[in-house]
Write a structure and sequence with these properties.
Layout: H1 2-28, E1 37-40, E2 45-50, E3 57-63, E4 71-76, E5 81-87, E6 94-99, E7 104-109, E8 114-119, E9 128-136, E10 139-147, E11 153-161, E12 167-182, E13 186-190, E14 200-205, E15 221-223, E16 227-229, E17 232-234, E18 239-241, E19 247-249, E20 257-261, E21 264-287, E22 293-313
Parallel strand pairs: 1-10
Antiparallel strand pairs: 2-8, 3-9, 4-5, 4-6, 6-7, 7-8, 9-10, 11-21, 12-21, 13-20, 14-19, 14-22, 15-18, 16-17, 21-22
């Protein structure tokens, strides 16, 4: 009987210790994310994380490449800016973000017990990673995020359309000024489109951050419009470098103009007629990893002389 009584007491003590131990573990593990590791492809995306309770905060976000705290913008739950270009932290509900042209993230806490981590497409040449540091009192938990580098895109096609603000517009530009002081009248020849920076210039423009990243090392030449007539776009095989930087080409107006210069002091200048052409484009790229299409939209803008000009004498 004594042994049986002793056994019951021992078992009771053991269960009490076990229950107390479980209770202590629950107290220690205040922060319980549904995952502590996110691995994502370069194309980016969103991951939702749930928690058993909301008694925690984001203390900082650490960059894996430098081990420094990442700086960015902090927003309240209603979207008001709390801090700009600051070390990222969030005590309650709201949003923090660090966005660059080639990568970035947005972390949103819509409810006390949830997080959503959105990764922008990683168009840098290296892997991107960071750690979200959470704390509750003395307890600290980390969520590691790893994003692969992109395998890039290849060119598929480019198409042009005329939208509301597209088309041709003309403007006048003052060209070279000529000044004389001669004893007798004489004839001279001038180039109406001579001078500095008199070229056919064009470039591509897009609001998308990665519009020119994927093809920047390819020196891609694409066909561009040569004329717009009655809302139709025409081509004749002309090509330009797909780039946000200007392509410079000869204007093609090499004719000379004969001008009579009177005796004494005189001065005249050339007024040149120029055209600004704006056409919308849609560039199709193919992802080297997934084979999926990516669309870049923007405008092709050309500024070029039309060949029209006039001579103006100063009084």
């Amino acid at each position: 009987m004594k042994n049986s009584k002793f056994s019951k007491i021992f078992v009771g003590l053991f269960l009490s210790i076990g229950i107390a131990s479980c209770s202590n573990d629950d107290e220690v593990s205040t922060i319980q994310p549904s995952t502590s590791l996110i691995e994502m492809e370069a194309e980016g995306g969103e991951t939702a994380i749930s928690f058993t309770n909301g008694d925690w905060q984001i203390a900082e976000v650490i960059n894996h490449n430098s081990n420094y705290s990442i700086q960015g913008n902090i927003y309240s739950q209603d979207g008001e800016v709390i801090r700009v270009n600051s070390v990222l932290s969030l005590e309650d509900q709201g949003k923090i973000e660090a966005l660059w042209d080639i990568k970035g993230f947005v972390i949103t806490r819509d409810t006390p017990s949830s997080l959503e981590i959105m990764l922008k497409e990683n168009s840098s040449s290296e892997e991107f990673g960071f750690t979200v540091v959470l704390n509750s009192g003395e307890e600290v938990k980390e969520i590691d995020v790893f994003q692969k580098k992109s395998q890039g895109y290849r060119f598929d096609s480019i198409a042009y359309t005329l939208k509301e603000d597209d088309g041709d517009s003309l403007f006048v530009r003052k060209g070279t000024t000529y000044t004389f002081n001669v004893l007798e009248s004489q004839e001279i020849s001038i180039s109406p489109y001579g001078g500095v920076d008199i070229h056919n210039q064009s470039h591509f423009k897009s609001p998308q951050d990665d519009a020119f990243i994927w093809l920047k090392n390819d020196s891609l030449m694409v066909e561009v419009p040569t004329d717009i007539y009655q809302n139709e776009i025409y081509f004749n095989g002309d090509e330009r470098l797909y780039s946000e930087y200007s392509s410079i080409n000869p204007h093609g107006f090499e004719e000379m103009k004969s001008v009579s210069i009177p005796a004494g002091e005189s001065e005249f200048f050339v007024k040149q007629e120029w055209r600004k052409r704006k056409v919308s484009y849609r560039l199709s790229l193919i992802n080297n990893r997934t084979g999926e299409e990516k669309i870049i939209e923007g405008s092709w803008i050309e500024i070029a002389p039309t060949g029209g000009y006039s001579i103006h004498w100063e009084d």
